[in-house]
Amino acid sequence: MTKIIAVTACPSGVAHTYMAAEALERAAKAKGWECKVETQGSIGIENELTPDDISAASIVILTKDIGIKHEERFQGKTIVRVNISDAVKRADTILEKISAHLTQAA
């Protein structure tokens, strides 16, 4: 099973952070993928990714509108950087592109 992880964060740290997390989780579930999303919002880090989550992941999705805290923990992983608005509005498209990449890499 494909496992992806993501970290979402937006400049205001409110709505888009959580909307992006929900959209990515929903799109991954529709593909039959396992997905865990850490949010870095106005109230801090929630649903924090564990070392096991990170090591098991095929792909890491990071939003790029604001700096992600503790990004160094993803060193050596394949990272896809997306705009927060794309994660909210086009999560399905993002995961299709990732799927194509994983298929080519296999």
UniProtKB/TrEMBL annotation:
<protein>
    <recommendedName>
        <fullName>protein-N(pi)-phosphohistidine--D-fructose phosphotransferase</fullName>
        <ecNumber>2.7.1.202</ecNumber>
    </recommendedName>
</protein>
<dbReference type="InterPro" id="IPR003501">
    <property type="entry name" value="PTS_EIIB_2/3"/>
</dbReference>
<keyword id="KW-0598">Phosphotransferase system</keyword>
<keyword id="KW-0808">Transferase</keyword>
<dbReference type="GO" id="GO:0022877">
    <property type="term" value="F:protein-N(PI)-phosphohistidine-fructose phosphotransferase system transporter activity"/>
</dbReference>
<dbReference type="InterPro" id="IPR036095">
    <property type="entry name" value="PTS_EIIB-like_sf"/>
</dbReference>
<dbReference type="InterPro" id="IPR050864">
    <property type="entry name" value="Bacterial_PTS_Sugar_Transport"/>
</dbReference>
<dbReference type="GO" id="GO:0016301">
    <property type="term" value="F:kinase activity"/>
</dbReference>
<keyword id="KW-0418">Kinase</keyword>
<feature type="domain" description="PTS EIIB type-2">
    <location>
        <begin position="4"/>
        <end position="100"/>
    </location>
</feature>
<dbReference type="InterPro" id="IPR003353">
    <property type="entry name" value="PTS_IIB_fruc"/>
</dbReference>
<dbReference type="Pfam" id="PF02302">
    <property type="entry name" value="PTS_IIB"/>
</dbReference>
<dbReference type="GO" id="GO:0009401">
    <property type="term" value="P:phosphoenolpyruvate-dependent sugar phosphotransferase system"/>
</dbReference>
<dbReference type="GO" id="GO:0005886">
    <property type="term" value="C:plasma membrane"/>
</dbReference>
<dbReference type="GO" id="GO:0090563">
    <property type="term" value="F:protein-phosphocysteine-sugar phosphotransferase activity"/>
</dbReference>
<keyword id="KW-0762">Sugar transport</keyword>
<keyword id="KW-0813">Transport</keyword>
<dbReference type="InterPro" id="IPR013011">
    <property type="entry name" value="PTS_EIIB_2"/>
</dbReference>
<keyword id="KW-0597">Phosphoprotein</keyword>
